[in-house]
Amino acid sequence: MDGVDGKVIGCLLRNARATLAEIGAEVGLSAPAVKRRIDRLVASGAIQGFTALIDPDVLGWQTEAYVEIYCKGTVSPKDLRRSLEQVPEVVGAVTVSGDADALVHMLASDVKQLERALERIRDEPNVDHTRSVIVLSRLIDRPRT
Fold first, then answer.
1. pTM score, two decimals?
2. Alpha-carbon distance 47 to 92, whole Å?
């Protein structure tokens, strides 16, 4: 990866829907050259995918929670991910050190929807129990770019 690749990635982080021509104009390359670089970055794993950033308030997702997950026995991160991906209210998940096996970030329209989502997580055969905290207010929310 070189400096131009870094600039291409920077453009994509700011706007993943930018056209190849727009990116090329910003980094000094033709659209086909940008496409080749993006394809190479995807093939190498440097770019793992493209996604949309959403505004939870606009979607009515006003209830936010962090949930510690405690598993039965040893569960691989791959198996845990597979279980959590089935719950649309899960917007982030990480394995952690300490007593819990994972920490999950959830968004829901209200507490009832959050409760139903938690029940789906607890129904997974590899989950023993959970411990949740509901967010009251966001103090700092920095983008990860």
1. 0.69
2. 18
